[in-house]
Write a structure and sequence with these properties.
Strand 1 (40-45), helix 2 (52-62) and strand 2 form a beta-alpha-beta unit. The chain is 48% helix and 13% strand. It has one domain (2-90). The protein contains 3 helices and 2 strands. The protein has helices spanning 2-25, 52-62, 80-90, and strands spanning 40-45, 68-73. It has 95 residues and is of the alpha+beta class. The chain has a two-stranded parallel ribbon.
């Protein structure tokens, strides 16, 4: 099940990257009247300590500057939130 979430997250990031390239190609025209529109990715997790490092490494490479990632912990008991916290402390440019 965790691999499915990771796959879905990576597919979403690929779509974000494609949108970013498209916007760059067309000089970032206004989207619904809002300049520089952005997107957010919501990642809910529970006890994913073994999978989070790989996901975070891929996110670091894939998320566009306008993108935002929202992590939601579903009562993890394996230290997953600490992995995300440490990652965000090391990568302060990410939202």
């Amino acid at each position: 099940m965790a691999q499915l979430y990771i796959l879905l997250a990576l597919l979403y990031l690929l779509a974000l990257f494609a949108m970013k390239r498209s916007w760059d190609k067309h000089e970032r025209k206004h989207f619904n009247g809002t300049p520089n529109a952005s997107a957010a990715l919501l990642i809910a997790f529970r006890n994913e300590k073994g999978n989070l490092p790989r996901l975070l490494k891929n996110l670091e490479k894939s998320i566009p500057p306008e993108g935002e990632v929202i992590f939601v912990d579903d009562n993890s008991r394996d230290g997953s939130p600490e992995i995300i916290h440490d990652f965000l402390q090391e990568n302060r440019e990410l939202k």
